[in-house]
Design the sequence.
């Protein structure tokens, strides 16, 4: 809004106008009074010299008259000055009275906890505007004080009723403890804790760590959750998690600590660990016994193969031994690794292929391994091991007739992402032998080994792919693509013995 040209409500304008009015009135009064006195003196002189048209005064009498007029003038000026001073003092006192009341209110404010009442606004001048602004400041302060009071009340309610133990300390001195902290440390009241050393409530072995955490909180404002041992007032020890944050308490920095008792959780974890150790020991024993029983069955089959006079029986029993040996090797791998959730498939297939070659070849065929490590469950490792065993037996039996030399390659590598977004892997057994016969498809369903291999591939959620070996002039390749069922199967790591060439020299081993 545009201010008026003549702001009559202005205090400066009022004082100026009042001063001008008083001066004008004073000057008019002095002039009139002087004229009146002069006329009286002239009339007195005319009375003393009647009939004369001219006044002839001696010099001394004229000077006396002028002096008298001058004294009267000074008296009038003094009176006028006194009048102006009195009027100005009265006006300033009237106008500045609100400022005096404001100053008195501000001086008494620190002596009272409550905010002062609003000041009356009696005018619309600068002082009135100042009073209105002061009242607005008081209103804002009252609103903020009310908001602060409500916030403090909510915080007090939260700290008093929370089940979490909260304590505030400064310079190793406990300043505040909520009821949960009082109960946690075994105190009857807060007075037993307040003023005590914080280190007195911490286990001696953990006090240095507590000092470092306190220093870190002072420097950075907050600490992460840590575990340490505390002491109750009766000396008993309990495990707890705690975190600290830097706050303002009574106008000074202090550290607020939240303590959570985890004694029962620690006991439950210890009981769970003990139970887990018992179960692991039991599983170790089960796998060990299963492996031993399978080895006994394999030994019985080997003895029966040596006693049989039928020409086909030893080869059949030998194939049965290989299958049993692959299952026994899986249990032995689980027993030695100590982990029953997953199996390193590359390590397992390496051992399986090595043992199968030692049992079935006469040194003319080499084994080549190219295996990437992947973790799978036991349910997937079992059919995968049996599948590789069948394919190795099939290659050694049919791919290299008449002691022909060659190479059997076992591969395990990751493939592209499946449509579902999961990583897939491919296990394959290939050779550079004589290749597939012309009537292979007709004879495929008549052999137990390939029937079993196809069934094992379906158990892996896939199909058995059979084709000519693309990496050699002759030979065949058998492969199965599958998705690992272990969450750790998404990481592919090259096995340390990925490209191992194994020369077999002793079939008796």
Sequence:
């Amino acid at each position: 809004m545009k201010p008026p040209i003549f702001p009559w409500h202005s205090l400066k304008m009022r004082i100026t106008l009042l001063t001008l009015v008083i001066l004008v009135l004073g000057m008019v009064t002095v002039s009139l009074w002087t004229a009146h006195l002069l006329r009286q003196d002239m009339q007195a002189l005319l009375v003393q010299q009647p009939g004369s048209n001219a006044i002839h005064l001696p010099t001394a009498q004229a000077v006396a008259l002028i002096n008298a007029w001058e004294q009267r003038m000074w008296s009038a000026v003094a009176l006028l000055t006194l009048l102006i001073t009195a009027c100005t003092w009265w006006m300033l006192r009237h106008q500045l009275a609100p400022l005096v009341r404001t100053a008195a209110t501000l001086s008494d404010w620190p002596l009272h906890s409550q905010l002062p009442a609003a000041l009356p606004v009696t005018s619309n001048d600068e002082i009135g505007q100042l009073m209105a602004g002061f009242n607005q400041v008081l209103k804002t302060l009252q609103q903020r004080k009310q908001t602060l009071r409500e916030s403090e009340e909510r915080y007090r309610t939260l700290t008093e009723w929370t089940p979490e133990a909260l304590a505030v300390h400064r310079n190793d001195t406990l300043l505040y403890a909520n009821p949960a902290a009082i109960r946690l440390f075994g105190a009857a009241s807060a007075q037993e804790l307040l003023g005590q050393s914080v280190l007195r409530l911490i286990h001696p072995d953990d006090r240095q760590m507590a000092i470092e955490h306190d220093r870190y909180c002072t420097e950075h404002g907050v600490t992460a959750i840590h575990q340490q041992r505390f002491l109750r007032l009766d000396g008993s020890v309990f495990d707890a998690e705690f975190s600290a944050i830097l706050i303002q308490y009574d106008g000074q920095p202090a550290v607020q600590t939240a303590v959570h008792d985890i004694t029962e959780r620690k006991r439950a974890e210890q009981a769970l660990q003990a139970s887990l150790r018992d179960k692991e020991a039991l599983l170790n024993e089960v796998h060990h016994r299963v492996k031993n029983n399978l080895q006994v069955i394999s030994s019985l089959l080997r003895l029966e193969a040596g006693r049989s006079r039928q020409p086909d029986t030893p080869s059949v029993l030998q194939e049965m031994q290989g299958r049993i040996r692959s299952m026994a090797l899986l249990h032995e791998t689980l027993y030695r690794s100590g982990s029953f959730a997953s199996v390193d498939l590359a390590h397992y297939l390496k051992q399986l292929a090595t043992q199968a070659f030692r049992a079935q070849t006469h040194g003319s065929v080499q084994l080549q391994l190219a295996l990437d490590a992947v973790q799978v469950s036991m349910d997937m490792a079992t059919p995968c091991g049996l599948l590789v065993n069948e394919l190795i037996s099939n290659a050694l039996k049919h791919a290299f007739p008449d002691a022909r030399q060659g190479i059997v390659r076992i591969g395990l590598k990751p493939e592209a992402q499946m449509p579902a977004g999961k990583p897939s892997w491919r296990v394959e057994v290939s050779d550079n032998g004589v290749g597939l016969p012309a009537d292979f498809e007709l004879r495929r369903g008549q052999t137990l080994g390939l029937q079993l291999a196809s069934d094992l591939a379906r158990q892996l959620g896939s199909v058995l792919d059979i084709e000519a070996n693309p990496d050699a002039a002759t030979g065949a390749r058998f492969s199965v693509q599958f998705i690992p069922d272990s969450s750790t199967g998404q990481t592919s790591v090259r096995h340390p013995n990925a490209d191992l060439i194994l020369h077999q020299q002793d079939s008796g081993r």
Remarks:
- Residues 1-8, 487-509 have pLDDT under 50 and may be disordered.
- Residues 271-340 form one domain.
- Residues 216 and 223 are 7 Å apart (CA to CA).
